[in-house]
Amino acid sequence: MATTEQSTTGSSTGPESGPAPGARRTADRPLLTGRLTGFGTTIFAEMSALAAETGAINLGQGFPDTDGPESVREAAVRAIRDGRGNQYPPGPGIPELRTAIAGHQLSRYGLHHDPDTDVLVTAGATEAIAAALLALVEPGDEVIALEPYYDSYAACIALAGGRRVPVTLRPRDGAYHLDLDELRDAITDRTRLILLNTPHNPTGTVLGRDELAAIAELAVEHDLLVVTDEVYEHLVFEGEHHPIAGFPGMRERTVTIGSAGKTYSLTGWKVGWITASAPLVTAVRTVKQFLTYVSAGPFQYAVAEALQLPEAYYEELRASLRARRDLLADGLTAAGFTVYRPAGTYFITTDIRPLGASDGIAFCRELPHRCGVVAVPNAVFYDDAEQGAPFIRFAFCKSPALLEEAAARLRRL
Ligand SMILES: Cc1ncc(COP(=O)(O)O)c(C=O)c1O
Asked: Burial, 327: exposed, middle or buried (Cβ in 10 Å; 0-12, 13-18, 19+)?
């Protein structure tokens, strides 16, 4: 499997599954823990294999086809040559990177964090998500997640023994929206935390200030924790990104997750982080130390430098991705899809029903054979696959020439 995205075509909603009572011997029980029953082969692996087999353009997986800034890559080479980070770096991350992350949160969002106590460097956002959920969720706790959801959420909630409670974003007027009443109704006395993702993969929704204020109020009212995945914070084309940690009462109850992968087009480096209050960081660090202990020494030095890039870098990234979004969105519209033009991220969700199809999984399996393009079915991001059945997702973090070729091929539909 090439990227962190690892959706499966089946999933488990809770800790109920496991070996039959009394099945103690290896021969009598499945090898995979019951907590992950249903989390089998990934749709991304399947679709990427199809792309390789058919020579199709792979717009399934979310990784750029160009590498991040040369100065940042050179910084990693320098670190390796200079012997910085070649041995275990400090558990919480190197001080240079923790200071740079705290500086980023302060200069962009006005959020004060002590680099020594409020920042933890992780092996990508993926480890941050896993460590946060394993640290904060007890078996039986309910975790509200925005659906469709990034696939590792479901797996990590299941590993923690939590119960996933989806709140579904629904398409309306060309975009996906959160229904705050549904969110309110999903809260019970077993709810432990709300797992947010904004900008949101796969719908491209960017939660607005009012929505975040309302979520924050609910979290405070019901004394809930919030874990917020903000890895696409710099990929916003419409509106603005607001970290929920900045809303009243949220500072002490929010774990904010960031990553260098998406912002600097370096998804293979796996440098992520959390920022939170010291007690929350301590809890997450306690788990993280037993998952990877530390990670990516030299890359940490390079990402510390990346975080000092001038504003022009981010503006250029946004402008270039916005142009590519429009290129692919227009191509998909011309090909007959209903397009939900994303306000953020580098994914476009489409509806295949205008093309006379309604089963996204079957459609994606056929697409490379029909016209040489690979996408992924959104059904795998839902508890109730029916809800996501007619939607499929394309990634546009690819070169304009490749996107143009993909659009031309899709017009054959
Ligand atoms: C919403 C979301 N969170 C987290 C990740 C993983 O980030 P990382 O590569 O830093 O582990 C991804 C990657 O696709 C993502 O889409």
From this structure: middle
Q: Does residue 230 have its Cβ closer than 6 Å to ligand 1?
A: no
Ligand 1 pocket member 344 (CB < 6 A):
no
Domain 34-63+312-410, classified CATH 3.90.1150.10, yes or no: yes
Give ranges for CATH 3.90.1150.10 in the chain: 34-63+312-410
User: Which positions ≥6 away from 110 have C-beta within 8 Å?
Assistant: 246
Kindly state if the Cβ of 345 falls inside 6 Å of ligand 1.
no
Model confidence over 238-280: pLDDT tens digits?
999 999 999 999 999 999 999 999 999 999 999 999 999 999 9
- Phi and psi for 113 in degrees, rounded to 5? -135, 135
Q: Which residue has the higher pLDDT, 300 or 4?
A: 300
Tell whether ligand 1 has an atom less than 6 A from the beta carbon of residue 228. no
Question: CATH class for domain 70-306?
Answer: alpha beta
Query: Considering only CA atoms, which residue is closest to atom 7 of ligand 1?
Result: 125
Determine the distance separating the centroid of ligand 1 and the alpha carbon of 345, expressed in angstroms. Answer: 11
pLDDT at 20: 65
